[in-house]
């Protein structure tokens, strides 16, 4: 019995998606959804997590985001795109992350539709989840009031 590559990938990444969606983070699956989300953020703050299958996403990024979301001060909106899965949505999201090069995983905080804080992959892979959470909490406390 053969399984299609798409089915295999959906099954493989499901728990990686759920690490964020069970926190109440909404997945953006299309470029149009990304544009709508960024537009909504013009009246508040938006956390955007570029998710990934890599080890640093599992060991540091997603756990760091989960810890940061326990803070008292939080973004108005929380979203995620999955690099390598929803390629068009991720490409659209990356347009809003300029001047930073494509990076996954990565974490962006927007305020009033503008990029206010960005954590790139190289700032994730060599840091603990607690350090990433601390970085995000600092950004939440600064920009989400």
From TrEMBL:
It holds the Pfam family Disulph_isomer. Belongs to the bacilliredoxin family. It comes from the Bacteria. InterPro entries: BrxB/BrxA (IPR009474). NCBIfam families: YphP_YqiW. This is BrxA/BrxB family bacilliredoxin. It comes from Paenibacillus alba. Transmembrane segments: none annotated.
